[in-house]
Amino acid sequence: MSKLQPKVALGDGFLEAFAAIPRAQQKAVMSFVSKFRANPRAPGINYEVIRNARDPNFRSVRIDLNYRGIVLSPDQGNVYVLLWVDKHDDAYAWAVRHRCQIHPTTGSLQLFEVDHEIEEPEISDGSATVTEPAETKIVPNSETLQVEPSAEPLFNLDVTTLLSLGIPQERLALVRSIASEQALEKVEARLPIEAFEALYLLAAGTSLADVLQEYAAPTKAGPVDIEDFEAALEHPATQRRFHVPEDEQELGRMLNAPLERWRVFLHPSQRKLVERKWSGPVRVLGGAGTGKTVVAMHRARWLVSQSNWLKGARLLFTTFTSNLALDIADNLRKICTPEQMRRIEVINLDAWVSQFVKRNGYQSSIIYPGGRDKNYERCWSQAMALASGELGLPDSFYQEEWQRVILSQQVRSRKEYFSASRIGRGVALNRRQRADIWPVFEEMREQLARGGFVTAEDAVHYALELLNQGDDKRSYHAVVVDEGQDFSAEALSLLRALVPEHDNDLFIVGDAHQRIYQRKTSLKQCGINIIGRGRKLKINYRTTELIRRYATALLEGVEVDDLDGGLDGTQDYRSLVLGQAPVVQNHVDMASEGQWLVQQIEQLQSVGVPLSEICIVARTNRLCSDYEAVLQSHGLLTHTLSRQKTDDRSQEGVRFATMHRVKGLEFRCVMMVGINDGVVPLGVAMKSSQDVVEQRLTDLNERALFHVAATRAVRYLYISSHGIPSEYLKV
Asked: Rounded to two decimals, what is the model's pTM?
C-alpha cells in the first residue's frame, strides 16, 4: 500500500471493548469504523488531544454523544490504529493508563499499561548494571507488590538480552525486580504480550536459547525507525494484536464476531507455518489448545488466496470425523471469501472415500463394525461359527486379528496370512494355528461378498488402487489434514496419492496425546517424507496452566509418538495463564451429584458465564441423557450437541456432549460428570479383549479421551463422580 494512502488497523483490544458495549451502541460504532476506514481525515471526524495521556500519539474520536474511540494517530506517516471504544470517561481513563509504541530493538508495535503514579528508573542500553532503590513499589491493577531487597531476581539477564525479547526500556527495572512467577503474573498487563510470554516461558523452565530463537529480534536486523508505524504493522509480532482489514467485507466479518480472535490474530510461530512456501509435506505437532486447527484453516485460506494458485485447482481439507468436518467448514466460511471457499472441499475421509468409489462404479455398500451396522455384525456372526474351540482363543482375538492384520495388510489368502506381519500382537501364532484360524476370515470375506458389502478399510484400498492406476484423473493441488493422529496407515497412504508431490502439497496437524481412534502410524512408512519439515506449537492459548497440568498428568510416563516414528513429550508445552485448579468432587449418589452441578451452574451464571458457555461432558450418550434430565428437573435449559450440526452459541442452554463429540470444541466451563469406576475407563471397552497389548492400547485411548475432554475447558473445569470414583481421578 502506498504511503499516500491511509492505513487503518484495528487492535484486538478494540474488538474486545466493542463486544462489551450494548448492541444498540455497536451499530453506531460499526457505522463509524466503516467511515473512518474509508477516510480517517474526513471533516466529520473530530480528533481531540487527551489530557494527561502518557502517549502523545493518542487521540479521542467521537462515536456519538456518549461513546468515544481511542485512536493512535502519529504526527508522521499516514497510519491510524483503533485501540479502544467505551463510554466517554472510561475511554479517556483507558487512554491515560496505556501506551502504544514501536520497540526500538524488535521493531514491533507494542501496547501495554503504564503507571501514572510513579516513574520507573531507566537503564542504559550500554550497561548490564541496574541501579535500583532499596525498595521498589509497583502498582499493578490497584494491587501493591512489595519486592524485598533480599529477594533473588527471577531473571538474571543483561539489558541487551531483555531488549531483544521485546522488554520496553521503561520496564527493564520492573523485570529485574521480579522474584517469582506469581509476581510476574501480577504485572502481566504492564508488559507487551510478546515480552510477557517470553518471560513466562523462561520462568517455566524453557531454555534461554529456545526463547531467544522464538522471540528475539534478528541479530542482523538494521536500525529500527520508531516513527515508522507502517513498517511496524508488517512485523509478525505486531500482527498478533493489530490487523489491517483487506476490504470492507473483512471489516464486517471482524465486527460481526469481535471475540473470535483466531479469525484474524495469529501468533508469530503460527504465522510462520501458515505463510511459507514449503518444499514438501509438513507435519505440525501441538498439544490441546495450541491452535493446530486454526493454523490448518489459515493455511488452507492462504494457499488458495495466492496469485500462483492454479485456476480451477482444488484444495482438500479433511479430518477423521464428520462433526469435526462440519465445524471446520463453518469456521472456514468465517475467514474465507466465497471465491476462496469454492476452491476448498471440506469433508471427513470416510465420506470422501464413499463418494469416490461409488463415482468409479463401486457397487458394494460400505459397512462399519462396533454396532454401527447390523449387516456387519450378522456377517461376523456367520464367520465366527467356524472358529475352532480347540485353540482356546476368545472372540475378541479374532476381531482384533481381523482389524489389525487382515484388513490393514489386505490379506486375501491363507498363503498371504502365513507371511503377514503380526508385530504388536500380544498372542504369538505358529503356522498350524494360523491355518486353523484362517477359515473364519475367509468366511467373513465370503459373507461380505454375498451381501454386496465392503469394509471401510477395503474401500480405502480400492480407492488407492484407482489412484495408483490412474483410472480416476481427479486430484487436488494441496491437501490439509486435521487430527492427523487418528488416521490409519492406509488412509495416510491414500492422502499421499491424492496430490502430486510438489511444493506445499501436504500439511498435516495432529497430536498423538489426543489419539482416541487408531493405532499409531508412521508418516514415512506411508510415503510421506517430512524430513526437515516437522514443527511443533508449544503454547496453549485455550486452557489455564493448572487445567493443562491436570489434563496432562494422566498421560505422564506413557510413551507418545510424534506421528513419524519418534517420541513427543510435553515438557515444552505450556499455558500462559495460571488460573484456578480444577474442582474434583465425589458424591454419594447421582442425585447429590446433580444437585451439586446445579449449584455450580447457578454460581457461574452469577459471575456472568452464559449457559451456552457451559458444557457437561459424559462418557456415553446414555449418561448425557440421564444428567440432562437432572438439570431439566431443576428448571435449567439444556441443549444436546448433534453430530450432524455445528453448535450455535446463540441458542441458550447448558450443552451436553459425549467425550468423543466435544473434541475440537471449547467452552468457558467444562463439567465432566459421572467419572465413576467402570465408566471411565469404560468397563465394556476394557474387558473387550484378553490380549494384554490390546488392553494397554485401550487404556491409553481412554486416557487420551479423558485428556481431550478436560482440555476443552478455557477457564473452569469441574470433575464429578458418585459412588466409587474412576481410578483416573486418583492420579
From this structure: 0.87
